[in-house]
Structures are given as C-alpha cells and as structure tokens.
Amino acid sequence: MAVLLAVLLLFTMIKTLVVITHSKSYQSRLHYQQMQAHYLCEAAVARARAELDKNPDWSEGFSEESLPGIDGTYSALFHTGPGLSVGANESVNNMRGKVVADGPRGEQTVPPHSCELIVTARVGSTERRVRVLLRKGGTILPYALSASNRIKLKGPARINGIKSRTSMTPTDAEVHSNAPRGSNVITWESTTDEEGQFTGRAEIRGKVSAVSPSGGAINFGSNPGQYRVTGGFETGSAAKPVPNYDLDAEIEEARGLPSISSSVGPGSATVTVTDSRYRNGDLSLSGDLVLEEGNLYVDGNVTINGSVTGVGSIYATGDISFTGNANIRANAPESGIAVYSGGKIQLASLDLAQFLADLEVGVTDMNTMNGKLRELRDGYDDLEVSEREALLGEVNLSATAFLAQLNTLGPSPTRDSLLKRVEYLATVTGPGNPEPAEVEEALTFGLPLPGLLLAVVGNEDYDATARHFLPGGIGPEDESSFFGLLYSKKYVYVTNHIKVMGGIWTYSDTASTPVGEEVEGVTAQNGDIFLYNGCTLTMDEEYLRSQRGPDSPGPPNVAAWEQL
C-alpha cells in the first residue's frame, strides 16, 4: 500500500512538473512573440518614414511584409477613396494637407503636414497594433539667429536660449552667419542717448560664429567692456544651412482654400481664423488677428496693425509687416506663430511719439511707471526680492493711475492699443497669490494673471529668464512680443524694444545682393538680419524643433506612439 501511495505521489509530482514546464515554455514563447511583434512595428514605422522622406505623397503602404530572421509579418494599409469614412485600421497621409483631415479616430483628427499610421504586426497567435503620428521635421537649428548673409545688432541687445517654455531650462543660443566671405559679417554697434551716455550692453549666451574666414568677419567694436559673449567668437566656421522652403509652391497649392478679406480702418473687428485661408493679392488687417490652429496663405504682401495671438502660420510670397501693438503670442507651450515670407519681414512696436507729444493727461504717472520698470530691469540681478517687489508695487500704482487717465480720452486706435497694454501691466504687477500651475499657464499664454510678476520675481526658478517676462514701458520705447519663428527669403528687420521668443532665420541663394532698400542708413542685402534698438531674443529650442512642412529636409519625426 505504501508503495502504491509513493508511486501516486511521484506521478502527481511529475505531472505538476510537466504542467509547470509547459506553462513556462508557453509564457516564454508568448513573450518572444510579443517582442518580435514590437520589433516588426518599429521596422514598419522606420520604413514608412523612409518612404515619406522620398515622397511626401506616398500612400501605397505594405501588406504582410516580413523581416529576415524574424517570424511574422507587418502591415499598414492606407485609406483611399474620397467621400468614404476612414476605417479603424486605415492609415491617412495628410503630409501635404493644409487643413485637418479625417482619420481612423474620427473626423478632423489628423493635423496638417502629418501622417497617421496604423501598423499591425502578427507573430504566431500574437497580434500587436500601434497608432503612430508622423510629422515632418525641418533641419534642427539650435540657433537664435541664423542668416544666409549678414547679422547686424545695434543698441542694447540680449540673446539667450531655453530648452522649452514648459521647463524654462537655460541653454546656449548661437548666432551664426553662412556668408562665405567678407568682413563685418556679424556686427554689434553701441549707441548713446541725447547726452552722449552709453545706452546698454550686448549680452549673448552662446557662441557667435561666421563661415567667413576673415579676421574682421565678426566686429563688436573696440571696447570689450560693452559686450559679453559667453561662447566667444569663431570665424571660418562650418556652414549651418537653413531650410529652403518653396513658399511659392506652398501658397499656390492653397489657391483653392476659402478666401480671407482685408479689414482696414479704425475700429476694425477682430479677425479669427480657425482653418486655412487663401488671399490672392495683398492682405491688410487693422484689427486683432486670432489664429486657432489657423493658417494664412497670401499671394502678395501682409500688413497687420494689431495684435496676433493663437497657434498657426502665416505664409506670404511678398513682404510681411507687423506694426501697431505687435503682440504676437502662442496659446500652447510647444507652439507659436510661424511666419514665412518670400520678401522681407518687419516688426516694429507702436510709434507713440506724436500721440505722447499731444497727451495732456497722465504724463507724470506714465513717466513714473516707465522709470520704475527700467530700474527693475536694469538692476534686477543686484536687487533683493523685497526690493523687486517694492518696485512692482510702485509700477502698479502709477499704471493704475495712468489707466484711469487714458479712460478719459476719446476712443482711437492708438488709445485703444495703449489701454490694452497698460491694463495688462496694471493687472500683472498687482497683488495676487496664484498657484504655480497658474503662473506657468500665464507665462506661456500671455494671460493677465493678478500677482503674476510678484510670483516670478520672488521665485529663484525664474531668475535666469525673469527679465524676459518683465513688460516694457509705454512710450517711444514701448515693448512688444513675438512668440514663434520668423523666416524670410529677403531680410528681417526687428526694431524698437521687441522681445522675440523663438528664432529668426533667413535663407537666400542670392545672398549679399542689394535689395535697393535702406535700414537705418544701411543698404539691405538678401539674407540679412537686423536686430536694432533694444530688442531681445530668447531661442525656444523645443519650438524650433517642431517646425515642419512636407518638403522639409529629413524624414518625418514620430510625434506620438500609442499601442491599440
């Protein structure tokens, strides 16, 4: 009996061992198949990126393709047929699209200049499906200023960089010229006030480099005490090419889009663009422009005398000019307003000289407000937190009084623009106790958050970039902001205390060719960049990396990866 029990026990143990071994074997095989399926998905995405790099219109896909040495297959089928709904397993190529397209997730789910790829991999009994969003990425240029020709800085100038607007992590921002030869390719010119006093230094966090090997290619003057360049000067540098966007073709392809009309004259209403619009001929807007994922394609010149906010792009075959309250901001941390011009781009703050000369109210309050702001900006690094807060309190008192005085004036475009600026200034310098998340949102979106600047100047996390968020005064030295990319095939001229966060690039295959126009006594040439009279530039590396287009160099980037 004992022998029988022993045999039964041994049999049970052997059976259990067999079951466990089989289970382990099954688990190992399942894991092996899952890993192979994952590799097949990666291979499919890599192949799709290569195909889209060669041909942005590619939509042939692939069916049950295999890889050497790996069991299983991968497939990616594209949607075809206009008017038909997109299936859940169908990919959509919207690389050349200028509007949002329908996709496997539903209507209007595939952004412009992107491809939504649905990949299915099968290995044995294992199936893996992934959704991958591919977006074209232009040449990555971690350069605040990159020009085909000359770069000319004049007056107080500050150039630095951040990794992104969400992290605010400081990074170097290079200033670079691709001009192949010549002297004075990159220059900085100091300026003085009416009394002959030096008006401000040039401060560049990063390197200043020029392709030209000439010893005089970079010229910042003979007094090194008037400027600071942390990365030093480099001549004979390797070229760093700017993307050559075919703007004529890009705008021609938009010819069938809905039109947009000019809006000229005092009291013009705000123009909101939620899609993509085309204009055959010059476009002039006197009111504010709001882009809600909107894109403007203009076969002509663009003139905007008002603020521009939102997320989107402006393309023009001709010149682009922002005057008035050139407050151009983005409503998403990774986005901005990308401006592409086949001609010149000019940004100039509101010219208030005549208006202020005739102003009979609030002058004392305005001057006090401007003076305290200047005192805060100029001495920021040497001030204690309590001193910064005290200055903000004085700014708030004078701004509130000035605002009340402006409200007694009759309506006019200049007064209305001033009201917006002073009201914002009075709000952000006022009291408040915002949460950190509210501060980040307000800084990113340009929101009038009470207590915003008190939270910034008293927080060491913002010390590296705090001065960028300090509004400028109101007057001939009025400051405006631009968030995004300025790209010109002629030249870019930014003047009068404008803050740029993003980047400025020029491309010209006819660099150094005079264009018959003068910029403050200098004959402009194709490929030039002019940054004059108290302008600052903070390179936003993450934003510049996001710039895209169907014909940008390089394969599309993986913007999103989701397992289904």
Task: List its traits.
single chain, 564 residues, 3 domains, 17-stranded mixed beta sheet, nine-stranded parallel beta sheet
Tally of extended strands?
36
The rounded Rg comes to 29 Å
Could you list the spans in which at least 5 consecutive residues all have pLDDT below 50? 17-21, 330-334
Strand portion, in percent? 25-35%
Q: What would the average pLDDT be, to the nearest integer?
A: 81
Distance between the termini: 58 Å
Q: Which percent bin holds the helix content? A: 25-40%
Looking at the structure, what is the overall shape?
Answer: globular
Number of helices: 10
Number of domains as seen in the coordinates: 3
Class by alpha and beta content: alpha/beta
Largest sheet descriptor: 17 strands, mixed
Textual characterization of the structure:
It is built from ten helices and 36 strands. The longest helix has 53 residues. A hairpin with a 7-residue loop joins β10 and β11. The protein is α/β, with parallel strands linked by helices and 564 residues long.
